[in-house]
Each structure stands twice: as C-alpha cells, then as structure tokens.
Amino acid sequence: MIFRRLRSLVRKEQMERQLDTELQFHIDMQTNENVRRGMSREDARRAAIRSFGSVDQVKDGVRDTWLVRMVETILQDVRYGARTLRKNPGFTLVIVLTMALGIGANTAIFSVVNGVLLKPLPYERGDELVIVRQPQTRTDVQDIGFSPKEMDDYRVQGSTLAGLVEFHSMWFILLGRPEPERVQTGVVSANFFDVLGVKPILGRRFRSEDEKHGAPAVLILSYPYWQRSFGGDANVVGQTFRMNDRPHTVVGVLPPIPQFPAEMDVYMPTTACPFRSNPRAIENRQFRLMSAFARTKSGVTPEQAAADLNVVSNRLQKAYPDAYPAANGFGITVSALREELTQDFRPTLVVLLATAGFVLLIVCASVANLLVARLVRRSRELAVRSALGAGRVRLLRQLLTESTMLAAAGGAVGLLLAVFGLDLLVTFAERFTARAAEITIDTRVLLFTLVMSIVTGVVFGAIPALSERQDVLTTLRDGGSRATSGRHAVRATLVVAQIAISFMLLVGAGLMLRSLLNLQRVNPGFTVDNVLTMRIDLNFSKYQTVATRAGVIQRLLERLEAEPGVVSAAASASFPLNDDGGGFSGTFQIEGKPVPEGQPQPRAALNLASPDYFKTIGIPLLRGRLFTKQDHVESPRVVIVTERLARTYWKDEDPINRRITFNNGQQWATIVGVVGDARTVLTEEAEATMYGPILQTGQLSTTWLLRTTVDQPAMERQVRAALREVDAEQPVDRFRTLEQVRGAALAPPRLTTTLVGIFATLALTITAIGIGGVIAFSVSERVQEFGVRMALGAQRGEVLGMVLRQGLTLVAIGLVIGIAGALALTRLMSRLLFAIEPTDAATFIAVSAVLAIVALLACFLPARRAASVDPLVALRAA
Amino acid sequence: MSVPKSDLLQGTLDLIILRTLALGPMHGWGISLRIQQISEDVLRVNQGSLYPALHRLEQQGWIQAEWGVSENNRQARFYSLTKKGRRQLEDETANWTRFAGAVARILEQA
C-alpha cells in the first residue's frame, strides 16, 4: 500500500499512461460489443464513446482518489506524530531547542555569507568592476597610486577597459551648517558614478561640464552623511555651502551602497579639489595621489585587463625613465572589486561557516541519539502496529514524519533566534566589510533554512529508523525491553562522531582563544591608559604656510596644556594603532651611504610629533634627545628615528648626528634621538619609523593626544572650548581614548573567538549529555548482568570501572578521529591565528584533557548507578 | 428500471464490485458488464463512478490490480480480491443483509 502511494508520487507519469490504456481498453471493448450487435464500426465507436461519458471526468475522478489518499495518509501521520510528541513535552522541547540552536546558528551565518558573498554587488553589472593598482614590486609597495598623467595614458592606451576613473580622499571643512563640519571628501572623475553604475536617489550625477576648468564647484552627498547631518532632508539638493573658500552646490544624494575604499561624506569632481586641480600637480607624472577604478569591457577577466595594462606600463617606463626608476620595479595589477570588498572577512567567514556546520552535525547526532533511545521505549508500540499490518516502510515514514515535524519546529524557532541575532551580526560584520549593511533575512536565506530543516529532519530521522532492524516477533517475545546490539552500535557511533566533532570545535576555539591572549599580551610599545585622542584637520585656505600651520598648532598646544586635568598634550600626524588614516611612508638617502645603482632606496614610515608626543604616549627615549620648542620653522632640520630604523640602516653604529635627506640633498636633517618601537598594526612588528618635529614642518591633518586625569566627556567639552578660542571655524572630532583604539583593533578577533567559543561550549554540552545518555542506557540494559556479576563476587569498584572503561573507549576513539580531523582542518584558520601554530600541541593536549574529563564526569553518574545495583533486586527482576 | 448514478451509494457500489470480483479476476469493462448482466440490467454502472471506485478500493488494499492479456489478446488491467478484501466483503455482506432485512421488516409491518 505504501509502495503504491510512493509510486503515485514518483511515477505519476507512468500511472497516467496506465490509466489511459485502461480506459481505452474499456471503450474498445464496448465498440466490439456494439459491432457484435450489428452496428457499423464507425457508429459502434461513436456510441461507445457516448455511452462512456466524459473521459476527462472519469480521469479526474480516479486522480482524486490518488490525491485524497495521499493527503489522508500524510495528515494521519502528522496527527499521529503530533499526538506522540505532545505526550512527551519534555522530550519534544529538548529536541526542538537543540535543533533551533543548530539551525539558528546556520541560518544566521548563512545570512551573512549571503549578504556579503553571494548577493551581486549593488552596482550595475558589478562583476565588471575592478580596482587597478600600480605596485612597486621591488620595494614591496602594493599601490603607489596614479598621477593625472598616468590616468590619461591608461585611459587612452588600454584596450580592455570600458571606463577608467580616479578617486582620492581628502578632508575638507564644510561651513554653513550650525557647526563647522569636517567632511571626508571623495575627489572623483566626472564619470565616476556612471562607470560604477550608481544612480543618485536625489538630484543628478556629475557631468563632464562639472569637471571643466573653472566650472562652479558641485557636491554629491553620501547616503549616511545625508542621513546623519541633514536628517534625510530632500531639500538639500540645490543648497550651497562654503568649502575651501568657494561656494559648493549640492547636486545629488547617493543611495545606501557600500563605498570603497572607504565611507565618504561627500564627493566632488577633480576640478573642485584645490590640490588635484593645481596645474603643477596635473603636469607632474609622479604626483601619484589617486586610486583607480575601472569597468572592464564585457567578457574581459581581470587577468586579461592586467596583461593589457602592463603592456601600456612597459611603454610608459621606456618613454619616461625618470618617472619610473628601474630599481623600484613598476607594474599593474587588476583585481575584482567584489573580491576586494570582502577579502578581509573571508577567512573569518570560512571558520564561522565550518563551526556552524559542525554544530549542526552534533545537533543532528544528538537528536538522532535521543530518537534512537526513544525508539527503544517505543519498540513495543511499533511492534504492535507492525503486527496489526503496518509495513516497515509505513513505520519508517511515520518516524520520518515525526522527525521532520521536530526539525520544522526547530527551524522555525531557529529562524526566530537568527532574526533576533541579526543586528548583532551586522555590527560584527561591519568591522570586516563595507557590505555588512546588505545582510538581511531574504528569500534565499528562508529557502536555505527550509531546506536545511527538511534535510536534517530526514537525516536524523532516518538514522534511528534504519537502525530499527529487529523483527516483530523478538520484540513481542521479549516484552519490548531488549534492544538489539545493532542499535547500540548506532548510538555508540553517533557518540564517537559527536566527540570527534566537539574536539575539532574545541581545538578551533582553543586556538582562537590562545591567539587572542597572545594578541592582548602584545606590547605595542606605548602606554594606552588615560590618553584621549582626537583629530583636527586645519583649514588649508586659512593656514597656507608652514609657519601659520606650526603657529596654530603651537597656540593650541599651549592652550591645552593650561587646561586643568591635562598632564601633557601632544600633536602628531598619526599615532600607533590608529586606523583612521594619516600614516604615510617615504624613501630617503643617508649622507655618506649612497645606494648602489639598481638597489631600492631606504624607506621609512613617517610621522610628525610635537615635543611632548613621546612623553604623552609613553614611547621611551633610548639615545640622544627629544624635540623641543627650539626645533621650530627657522631652526636646523632635525629628525628622530626608531630603534628598528637605527638597527636596519646603522647596525651597531650610532645614528645620532648622522644626516638624511628626503629630497635628494636639497635639505638635510640631523638625527637627534632614537626612541622605542611602537606597532602601527597590533599583529605586525613595528615598522622602521622616522619622526619629524611638527612645529618645524607644520601639518594640516593632525591627531592630538592628551594625557588626562579628567573623564572623557568633560575633557571633550574643555577641548572644544579651547579650540573655539584659538579658531572658532575649526572643527574637531574622532574623540577616542587610546584604550578604545586598542580595543577596536582587538574587537574583530575577540568577537570571532567569542562566537566560536560559544559554539564549541554548546557542542561540548550536547556531547556530554550524549555520552551520559548512551552509558546510562547501556547500564539499564545490563542491570541483570551486573547483578549476576556482583552475586558472583565482583566488587562495586570493578563494576564502576567496567562502565567507565566502556565510556572512555568511546571517548578514546572519538578523540583519535577528532585529532586527525583537527590536524587536517585547523590549517584553514591559520590566517586568523596570531603567534600560534594551527597544530599547537599544547592546545591539542589541553582540549583532549578537557573533553576526557567532561566525558568521564558524564559517565560517572550512570556508572555509580551500575555499581549500586542490588544483586537481589536485579536477579529477581530477571 | 435503471438506477441513476446518484442513487447508488458509494458503499453499495463498493460492495457490488467486491462481490463481482469474488467470482474471479476481471477488468473494468468486464466488471461493468457483469454487474449489468447479473442485475438483469436493473443496475447500470456509470464509468465515472466505476473507475475511481476501483482505484480507491485498490488503495485501501481490498483489491489488487495486475496487467494481463484479455480474451481478445489486448493488454488489460485485471482486478482481483485480496485477503483483506475478502474479509471486507464478508463483513459488508453481513451488514448489508442485516440492513436490508431490517428495512424489509419495517416495510412489511408499516
């Protein structure tokens, strides 16, 4: 009967054909009968068809019986299943919650993968968009950028690009709002948004007229800035604001899209940027300020585009040898924008996806185990149903219906968990990729959850059902109390699998945790306590000379030093661990140490510092002196180098009083001091760094550091007030303590570790319950055996040991498999690990020990029960 | 007198089909012919009821179907009673007889 029903599902077509044949036979026979009664062949046929009635109607009637039957059986199974599940609310609840955790975790992680990796870029034909870079291969610089001249050359001579546009970012001050606002400005080609395929939600894109020399300056606002600063006011288009001493008119607002390489507040065409539009910059082939984005012609791969552009690059290197010193090694690389946007997130996502997948496997194993256990308790019922004529397949389907119902309920609850967790995940993803905002529960995610629920339901339902091999007679004879050894083997296998997978998860979590601890222990080379940082970008149209810039910095320093609660104040170009830009590097020459022909020039990370910078941030002076107020615009040039730079270029010699130049000897600077190294990025060794005196060089983009004894909000108010006194039109922002800056650098690994840790703990708990359950079950099976053994003189301790040994055997097998699996898999997470090998022996040993101890504890309860069996009671029960 | 389709209760049609098949395996056409013959043309079965009934009975496991060769050498679907169907026929026959007897007594006494 089941087979017929299954057939009606699977072989619908064949059944239709058979029905046709059957009905045709009827009509043919009626025709023959009519002919026998004397009708002509033709009349006989027509009469037969007439008397048969509507063939379609008959067919519909038959088909109805197929359908009704199918729906009836399913409903019957569901009703029966619901009744069974309701009868055991505790059991049902445990399974639904376990499933919910497994499915919820996977739904959540998949929604991230979907939003970040699977969805197409929200640009028109986003797969054609590429980033073009000009690396210096021999100095290990990934992208030196492009000059306006180079942009023109590649635009004209490249044959694989449908469009090539430039981008660079600047801080400008926007006036005309209640407060002066420092806006991050993307300076772009007029056709930038046309090439990217982005349509403004308000107003228009830039036009080629906007980029003509002397055209009125125009702005396009980014969506987040428009929301944040203008509250989404649609009347903003057409408004005019003062920037760089010129009126700028807003012509459009962008939709909410991921912005690459960074979030901008406003965009302007190249001619509106006072630096980029400078004729000297336009003429200088080495004014390499810009990043390049392009759209490839359709069907062109990034590799093909790179090959094409490298031909152009070789041509340019031959034509302008001065602009391309052969010693540095020039070339072009092209990479897909889609890959670049998510590159930093990918290794983390892979680990999270694997983790969630493993958790689901453990959940399935654990639920299957519970179902097997329950099947034992239900074997009497099943045997009776079987004896009353329910076929094996019918029973199998009943079990699958129940497990699918459980999985569906688990999936629904899991989906809820995922929905509630979504905001957290988006915040998490924002630390890795600009595409985080695209993470939503969409149809694809829902479909994924649905399919996952059904598949897991069928899988964990089929395992116990298929283990149900016993025949009816045995069960009925034994009173349904005895399980077959086959079923025990299934449970043991499931537990071994759980242990193996838990081990892998725990090792993963353990490695992440140790890596995080290593990271937290890293000495960044400075003190993070009680230092408040902030950013001030000076208005360049007001402070046009080095002297005025140094002057305003000096005035503000003095003003801040006088504030109550300020221990020391410092200005710099950037500070270690700062992720807010400002870091730059350059090549220099050492007096008396010319670089041999064809060798790259010495290179250093550059920073600028006021006299108290080192004291404020806690970088120690090792030799020589720090900057003083006497190192001013008029005095001889001086620099301070870090220990690493000293060791790199002077080995054991003393660099103090040596001279270096950044401009081929036009101006020499004397090294006056050597200071300790400080890390720019927590995970990387400190770079060789050179500091210049900010009061001597002046600087527009400045970061400020205050060592204070006052809490942050109060200090912020004091700073704003002080700055207003110095220059009322000067904005200040990005207030953060050094502790927060370091926290932000640690946040991504900490969040990932927490997530993996939660998953691993979950897995361990589920597994411990699993082991305990299996041992308890086998103990209850062997109560009589234990009774006999004890009656024959076995000690309690021996029985206890026997049971524990049984549990530990499972653990040992699981551990061996787990170790092998972990050795094979942890390599995948090596990119997330800091200062620890993915096969770290200590971690493996510690995790094995933890797992073994937890397993032992889980076995101990049932073992004690076995040891306390009263031989008399046990034997009498037999 | 011919009995219109609607008057032939579903249970009655099932019983008649089972009874007919108790004589031996038969195809749909044969069943409809046999019902007509035995009832001396009183009952004429509509094909729109017959075939759905056959498939329904098959799904209930009371009859089973097999492809075989008809008297005129054609592929035909032969239905036969299952063990379960035979039991069902006995039960239903007993029920029917009891029911018919009761109705008859009421009609006589009224």
How is this structure best described in words?
The complex is a heterodimer of chains A (878) and B (110). With 878 residues, chain A is an alpha+beta fold. In chain A, 54% of the residues lie in helices and 14% in strands. In chain A, the strands form three sheets. In chain A, strands 13, 14, 15, 16, 17, 18, 19 and 20 form an eight-stranded mixed β-sheet that branches. In chain A, strand 18 and strand 19 (668-675) form a beta hairpin. In chain A, helix 16 runs antiparallel to helix 22, helix 17 crosses helix 21 and helix 24 runs antiparallel to helix 25 (841-867). Mean pLDDT of chain A is 87; it is low at 479-483. Chain B is of the alpha+beta class. In chain B, helix 1 crosses helix 3. The two termini of chain B are 25 Å apart. Classes of the chains: A alpha+beta (878), B alpha+beta (110). At the A-B interface, helix 2 and helix 4 of A face helix 2, helix 3 and strand 3 of B.
Characterize the largest beta sheet of chain A: strand count, sense, and whether it forms a barrel: 8 strands, mixed
Structural class of chain A: alpha+beta
Estimate what percentage of residues of chain B fall within beta strands.
5-15%
Question: Can you count the helices of chain A?
Answer: 26
Give the % helix of chain B.
Answer: 55-70%
- Write out the strand line-up for the largest beta sheet of chain B, numbering strands in chain order: 1-3-2
Stretches of chain B where pLDDT is under 50 for at least 5 consecutive residues are 1-7
Q: Calculate the terminal CA-CA distance of chain A, rounded to whole Å.
A: 40 Å
* General shape of chain A: globular
The description of the largest β-sheet of chain B is: 3 strands, antiparallel
